DNA sequence: GATTGTTTATGGCCCG
DNA sequence: CGGGCCATAAACAATC
């Protein structure tokens, strides 16, 4: 007899769409991505309703995965063989659900054809947000890095583009799709600084749901770089590449995540592209996917190690940081005017620090 | 052969 | 009533 799920709705159909259920499963996973079979497992474990008629709903769920742009496919690493790809949430899909409740979607997450010029705007906004994130690392940074970050922040603030520290109103998502080549992302730095085109024709800046720091690859697992982070890097000047690497490494140590700077990452990819014909290409052009292991080497580890050798970060400056994030249970809790769930008494919601309305970052053991 | 992924089609519900 | 969102069915291809 299966034990009752902790968020059991007994045998009633839960008030969540397949998109919401899938997003929950992915968000609850350690790496923010899951193979199809694990998405099934999560749903069946949490919601007894879905232990029946599996053929029916699983077909629907697969349809949703393919059909909706909010889900992206990530190829398996060679050292993790198995059937099917991993599924992740699109980096910009993090704010699909109001208050992270999974009950109501703001609107369909849909990619559009893109006006090239929007990118500069978006990149700049991203850059500002990223700098803010970077500054939060202040206590852990080398003096030089901290100073340089503050300079960048000041520059952003005085550019007239967006007052630093100002939080834009509800985001209006600009179209942002573009040809997804390595050169598009890391090329032409000189053209990619803070924007001059403020003629009002562009969409307002977007507040991004994720993107803790500039040029980082961390949020969606070790081999999926959010599109936003690449834009962020693109908006920075090339001589800040070292700063980015430094931040990536520090951020990785502070959070315990696998973090690699985008520049190291892309340089690896580009050199591999030149030497090898068969790279795993992104399945959708919205998030770059690749392998962690290139030519038998762990690129991530190599990058971090080389940084450490060059910078000798003293370990005592890297202090553990309390984990951010919601429990799955708190996210599953419906709003007061909706379907009333049955939650076991001992499964109290422990998360009181509910400040990340747009950020779905869940850290739950699997 | 089973699983995974893509695509098309259809109909219900809700909202402006 | 039309459009958006969603659920479901089903045909079919690709992959392990």
Describe this structure in words.
There is one protein chain. By secondary structure, the protein is mostly helical. It is built from 11 helices and 9 strands. It has helices at residues 18-28, 36-46, 54-67, 118-135, 143-158, 182-186, 227-234, 241-255, 262-275, 299-311, 328-332, and strands at residues 33-35, 71-74, 86-89, 216-217, 224-225, 260-261, 288-289, 293-294, 297-298. The strands form 4 sheets. Strands 1-3-2 form a 3-stranded antiparallel sheet. A two-stranded antiparallel ribbon has the order 4-6. β8 and β9 (297-298) form a beta hairpin. α1 (18-28) packs across α2. The chain is elongated. Residues 1-5, 112-130, 156-238 and 268-366 have low confidence and may be disordered. The chain binds a DNA duplex (16 and 16 nucleotides) through α3.
What is shown here, in short?
It is built from eleven helices and nine strands. By secondary structure, it is mainly alpha-helical. The model is unreliable at 1-5, 112-130, 156-238 and 268-366 (pLDDT under 50).
Which terms summarize this structure?
366 residues, 11 helices, mainly alpha, two-stranded antiparallel sheet, three-stranded antiparallel sheet, DNA-binding, disordered N terminus
């Amino acid at each position: 007899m299966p034990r009752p799920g902790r968020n059991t709705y007994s045998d009633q159909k839960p008030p969540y769409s397949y998109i919401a259920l899938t997003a929950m499963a992915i968000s609850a996973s350690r790496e923010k991505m899951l193979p199809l079979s694990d998405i099934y497992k999560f749903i069946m474990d949490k919601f007894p309703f879905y232990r029946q008629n599996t053929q029916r709903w699983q077909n629907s769920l697969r349809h949703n995965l393919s059909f909706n742009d909010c889900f992206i496919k990530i190829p398996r690493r060679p050292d993790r063989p198995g059937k099917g790809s991993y599924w992740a949430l699109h980096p910009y899909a993090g704010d699909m659900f109001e208050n992270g409740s999974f009950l109501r979607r703001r609107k369909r997450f849909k990619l559009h054809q893109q006006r090239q010029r929007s990118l500069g705007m978006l990149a700049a906004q991203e850059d500002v947000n990223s700098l803010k994130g970077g500054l939060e690392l202040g206590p852990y940074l080398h003096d030089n890095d901290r100073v340089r970050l503050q300079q960048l922040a000041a520059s952003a603030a005085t550019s007239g583009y967006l007052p630093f520290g100002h939080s834009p109103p509800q985001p209006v998502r600009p179209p942002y799709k573009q040809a997804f080549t390595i050169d598009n992302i890391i090329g032409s730095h000189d053209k990619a600084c803070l924007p001059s085109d403020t003629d009002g024709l562009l969409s307002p800046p977007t507040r991004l749901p994720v993107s803790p720091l500039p040029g980082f690859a961390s949020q969606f697992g070790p081999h999926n770089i959010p599109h936003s982070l690449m834009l962020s890097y693109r908006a920075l000047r090339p001589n800040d590449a070292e700063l980015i690497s430094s931040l990536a490494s520090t951020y990785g140590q502070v959070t315990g995540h696998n973090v690699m700077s985008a520049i190291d990452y892309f340089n690896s990819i580009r050199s591999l592209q030149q030497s090898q014909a068969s790279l795993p290409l992104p399945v959708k052009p919205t998030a770059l996917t690749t392998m962690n292991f290139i030519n038998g080497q762990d690129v991530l580890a190599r990058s971090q190690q080389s940084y450490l050798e060059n910078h000798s970060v003293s370990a005592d400056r890297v202090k553990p940081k309390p984990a951010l994030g919601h429990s799955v249970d708190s996210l599953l809790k419906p709003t007061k005017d909706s379907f009333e769930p049955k939650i076991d008494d001992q499964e109290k919601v422990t998360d009181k620090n509910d400040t990340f309305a747009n950020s779905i970052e869940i850290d739950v053991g699997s």
